[in-house]
Design brief:
Blueprint lengths: L1 H25 L10 H10 L2 E4 L4 E3 L7 E7 L2 E6 L5 E7 L4 E2 L1 H6 L6 E4 L3 E7 H10 L2 H26 L2 H11 L1 E4 L2 E4 L3 H8 L3 H13 L3 E4 L2 E4 L2 H9 L2
Antiparallel strand pairs: 1-8, 2-7, 3-6, 3-8, 4-5, 4-7, 9-10, 10-12, 11-12
Helix pairs in contact: 1-5, 6-7, 6-9, 7-8
């Protein structure tokens, strides 16, 4: 009976890993909060950017939302503060992504804050502007719903990651989720501290694990970026097979 029970536990763990890998593959092209091409074209042509310096707050947790934001250039971090002052990074936004739209639509106070992590240009889309865009481009509403659905799927996969994967596999999954193409290279534009906040690990732990990945030829750590050298190997590692 003990052997049978142990077999079932191992079998269930394997099923959970396979299920997680199937979800992880959905995000292999980095959907995150990135919106589709048609919606990007609309916002790029109608949105006027406002300059934000590094460290400047875009919106604050607890605020009553009057608008949402579209990142034209630069980078931003979305984070949450607990009542006792602890801070948790929820994600990093790149150009072509929208921020703060959930609170804008449900009209409840914001549950997170956002800050520019480098000099950025960010468009502010208020209620009046949004209604004008919807009138001119009815498809915009469906595109935004698609973006929200993708975000929900991502959060589900992140919960699975925190629950079922060890720290090294969680970090490997973050590399897959945040990868992008730059100068003909596949890179991740996150600091060790940002990765640590996303996976719930210390910066020291992240650095050690990334060094291990580098020694195995999976990645190469450069200044302000992590280059992915062997994506199939990282995917296989995440699967735990």
């Amino acid at each position: 009976m003990e052997q049978s029970g142990e077999f079932m536990i191992r079998k269930n763990i394997k099923i959970l890993r396979v299920t997680y890998l199937e979800k992880a593959e959905i995000y292999d092209t980095r959907i995150k909060t990135e919106i589709n091409g048609s919606l990007q074209k609309i916002l790029n042509s109608h949105a006027h950017g406002r300059a934000y310096e590094k460290g400047q707050i875009i919106y604050r947790q607890g605020e009553t939302p009057q608008c949402f934001y579209y990142l034209l250039s630069g980078r931003a971090s979305i984070f949450m503060n607990s009542p006792d002052g602890m801070e948790k990074t929820l994600g990093t936004a790149m150009p072509g992504e929208i921020l703060g739209e959930a609170a804008f639509f449900d009209k409840y106070p914001r549950i997170s804050s956002a800050v520019a992590t480098e000099k950025s240009s960010i468009a502010v889309i208020d209620g009046g502007k949004f209604i004008e865009l919807i009138k001119d481009y009815p498809r915009l509403a469906l595109d935004l719903l698609e973006s929200q659905a993708k975000r929900i799927r991502l959060l589900s996969a992140q919960i699975d990651s925190m629950t079922f994967l060890q720290a090294d596999r969680r970090i490997a999954q973050i590399l897959l989720e945040y990868k992008t193409t730059r100068k003909n290279k596949t890179v991740v534009l996150l600091t060790h501290e940002e990765i640590g906040s996303l996976v719930g690990a210390s910066r020291v732990t992240v650095s050690k694990i990334l060094n291990t990945f580098a020694k195995k030829g999976m990645i190469k750590t450069n200044y302000r970026e992590i280059e992915i050298l062997n994506q199939p190997q990282i995917e296989f590692f995440v699967s735990g097979r």
